[in-house]
Amino acid sequence: MPTLSALIVVHNGEADLPDCLASVRFADEIVVVLDRCTDGSRAIAERAGAKLLEGAWEIEGPRRNAGLAACTGAYTLEIDADERCPPELAAEIRAILQSQPQGGVFIPFDNRIGGHAITHGWGAYNGVGGKRCLFPSHTKSWGEGRLHPPVQQLPEVARTRARMVHHVYRDLPDMYARLLRYCRLAALDMVEKDAIPPAAKTVRRFFSRFWKSYVSRQGRREGFYGVAMALYSALYPALSHLMALELRRKR
C-alpha cells in the first residue's frame, strides 16, 4: 500500500483544526503548515502528532508549496482546516491508492453554511464543486497571486463517489467578512499587475454572476442562502474593482 501524507495549511484555525485532524488520522503522515498563527493551532497539531512547519508567507502559493515539499508520503491529500474527510471517503481513498494512480484524483465537495448542506448556487469565488486534492506527491505546484493562484498538476485519472465535507462559512456575517478580505487581496493583485478591468466589464460581471449563481446554478432553490450567495458572486468583481481604484489613488 502506498504511503499517504495529509497536508493542512492553517492560519489561526484552532476552531476547525481538531475535527480536521481527527478526520485524516488514517493517513501515514500529517503535515501542518502554521502560517503566522497566534492562537492554539500549534498545540492542537502537536497533540495530534503532526509534522509542523512554521513561518510567515504573504501569499498562498509559496505557503502551500512549502507544505507540499515537506510531505514524504508517496501520495498527498491536500485538505483545508474547514474540510473533513468522512470515514466513507477515507476508505475509498485507501482503496484507490492500492491501484497507485498516476494522476490526480478528483474529490467532490459537500459544501455547507452553518452546518447546513447547500447544493445549488455555488461558484464564482464562493465555493467549488470539488478538487483534485489527492495526487502523487511532488507533482503539484502553486503559482503566484494572493487569491486563487494558478495550479500546475497532473491530469485527473479517477474520481471518488464519497464527498469531502466543506464547512465553507459559519454564517452569513462570516461569508461577507470573507468577501471583503478576498476583494482586498484581488484589488492588491490588480494594482500590482496594472490589470484593473474596464468599468463596463465589471458592471456586466455584476449582473452575469448574479444570474449564473441564482438562476443557472439554481441558487433560488436554497432560499435566502441562494440570494446571499448570488449577491456574493455579483459583489466580488464590483468591490474588488472599487478597492483597486482606491488603492491606485493612494499609491
Could you characterize what this model shows?
The protein is α/β, with parallel strands linked by helices. It contains seven helices and twelve strands. It folds into two domains: 166 residues, Spore Coat Polysaccharide Biosynthesis Protein SpsA, Chain A (Alpha-Beta Complex), CATH 3.90.550.10; 79 residues, no CATH class. Strands 1, 2, 3, 4, 5, 6, 7, 8, 11 and 12 form a ten-stranded mixed sheet that branches. Strands 9-10 form a two-stranded antiparallel ribbon. The longest helix has 27 residues. The termini are far apart. The mean pLDDT is 95.
CATH topology of the largest domain: Spore Coat Polysaccharide Biosynthesis Protein SpsA, Chain A
CATH class call of the largest domain = Alpha Beta
Count of individual domains: 2
State the end-to-end CA separation. 55 Å
Radius of gyration: 19 Å
* Form type: globular
State the CATH superfamily name of the largest domain.
Spore Coat Polysaccharide Biosynthesis Protein SpsA, Chain A
- State the total count of DSSP E strands: 12
Q: Which sheet architecture does the biggest sheet show?
A: 10 strands, mixed
Please tally the helical runs, counting DSSP H or I stretches of 4 or more residues.
7
Class by alpha and beta content: alpha/beta
Runs in which pLDDT lies below 50 for 5 or more consecutive residues are none
CATH architecture of the largest domain: Alpha-Beta Complex
How would you spell out the order of helices and strands? EHEHEHEEHEEEEEEEHHH
Q: What percent of residues adopt helix (DSSP H or I)?
A: 40-55%
What is the residue-mean pLDDT, rounded to a whole number? 95
The percentage of residues in β strands lies in 15-25%
